[in-house]
Amino acid sequence: MYPIQQASTLAQVPSSTIRYYEKIQLIPAITRNAQGNRTFDDKDIEILNLIRCFRHLGMSIEDIRENLSHIHGAYEDVNTKAILFQHKEKLEEQIHILNSFIREIDDKIMA
């Protein structure tokens, strides 16, 4: 079990962000010790790392919430890979669209 400061370091997410994620119920309710302090286990750290990864990929909080709801137990790795693959496809599509805009702009500049 890790206190919030250590969980923050392990997940590379500020403590304030972890508190926010808990407040908006993006992460499951965090266990508290007898003194009322949050304690995190390895599963909590994995979820925080996954959220950090999704945020770096540009996913919205609502998309992350939806994707996390699809991740279950033994299928977690498979589902995570599928979600990442899906998001990668969306990003590649956006890149393709942006590249076509750049070509159009280049054509107008060269004209």
Automatic annotation (TrEMBL):
Pfam families found in the cross-reference section: MerR_1 (PF13411)
Residue intervals of the HTH merR-type domain: 1-70
TM ranges: none
Organism domain of life: Bacteria
Key words, A-Z: DNA-binding
SUPFAM superfamilies on file: Putative DNA-binding domain
Protein known as: MerR family transcriptional regulator
Species this protein is from: Sporosarcina gallistercoris
Lineage: Bacteria, Bacillati, Bacillota, Bacilli, Bacillales
